[in-house]
């Protein structure tokens, strides 16, 4: 497909940013703090939810600053460098579109995940075609970009408020879409100038490959992250980041690929858990073979 895979850019920036963040918290230089903020800020330009999730995390990190677990100056440098690319982009939006804001398409996304959820499950193009037939959308499309976005977002939230049961059902379905272990094999993909559904491996083979890795990576990843968090509390932003990313996509639109930013941390948790288990077994064998029953 020719769809822009912005998650790839986001994951690269995210991993670099978190790596520099831990170096900063662990006693690194102010340059680590600056690099962490810059990487995370630039990443949020690829996936706007990164701005919201890391905004919450960096605000919550004030508690770590007050407890003396994160030097206040390094926290301030991180926040400043994180905010700089976002502020510059918002200023660009203001000069070109008239409003200081990150993006102007959140309303469309919310409508795809609410009023046009069933059509969006078939394909985004189907949902968009159905939406474009609505008189209120045609009226909103004549508005400037941000006014149009406000109107569409308000209609999406009104739908949620008026249909709480349907909204909860949609959220549960999007939760499954976010955490599913294999790609959908029932989805219809249309061939066009930039998409060839028959290219590459068969859909069943892709599902089999996913089932061979995704389930245990996710399960062991969560178990490992929680165990790691008990041993080293400073890793608390990782599960919070995963839950925040999931929550945003449960409210808006969720697909399996939107889980990509969560996977590096689940892989980290799974590897750490397996490593610790292997080390424990090795230590147990050494202890059993030692004449004294223990080994230094």
- Assembly state (oligomeric): single chain
Give the biggest sheet. Answer: none
How many DSSP helices? 14
Number of strands: 0
Low-confidence stretches: none
Order of helices and strands: HHHHHHHHHHHHHH
* Mean of residue pLDDT values: 89
From the N-terminal CA to the C-terminal CA, the straight-line distance is 57 Å
* Overall 3D form: globular
Strand content: under 5%
- What is the SS-derived class? mainly alpha
Radius of gyration: 23 Å
Describe this structure in words.
This protein has helices at residues 6-25, 30-46, 49-60, 62-66, 72-97, 106-112, 117-122, 124-132, 135-140, 145-162, 164-179, 203-231, 237-251, 263-289. α2 packs antiparallel against α3. The chain contains 14 helices and no strands.
Layout of helices and strands:
Elements: H1 6-25, H2 30-46, H3 49-60, H4 62-66, H5 72-97, H6 106-112, H7 117-122, H8 124-132, H9 135-140, H10 145-162, H11 164-179, H12 203-231, H13 237-251, H14 263-289
What's the short version?
The chain has 296 residues and is mainly alpha-helical. It is 72% helix and 0% strand. It has helices at 6-25, 30-46, 49-60, 62-66, 72-97, 106-112, 117-122, 124-132, 135-140, 145-162, 164-179, 203-231, 237-251, 263-289.
Structural features:
296 residues, mainly alpha
